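Long-time lurker. I teach an intro course on protein structure, and each term I like to show students one example going from raw sequence to a predicted 3D structure in token notation. This year I'd like something fresh instead of my usual example. Would anyone be willing to generate the tokens for the chain below so I can use it in lecture? Attribution to the forum is fine with me.
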Amino acid sequence: MSLVIEGQTVEGTLRAEVGVSRLDASSARDFKKQIDALWSDAVTGVEFDFSRVDFLDSSGVGALLGVYKKLPSGSASVRLLNVKAPVQSVIELLRLHRIFEIAS
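-- Reply from a regular --
Happy to contribute to a lecture. Here you go:
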């Protein structure tokens, strides 16, 4: 199964669906590679559909932070859509909801 499916850039926003239930040490490396393959200089924001993600660990968090760091400073925007409660708890515990916008 592909980790990132239907990734495309629309008006500067890279929109991608995360296609795994666990964004963890075993999947984060491939996730980063697939995002790199979709990346272009035109990307000014990112939206991830997290509807399939049930679990997020430090490696997954690191992969998301890597995406954030790739964005141009000042206009960086990472939105996480359809985030399940356990994943949102991890993000909030680490206070990353200040960096990532969480939308239901």
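Some talking points for your students: The radius of gyration is 12 Å. Strands lie at 4-10, 13-18, 22-23, 45-49, 55-56, 78-81, 100-103.
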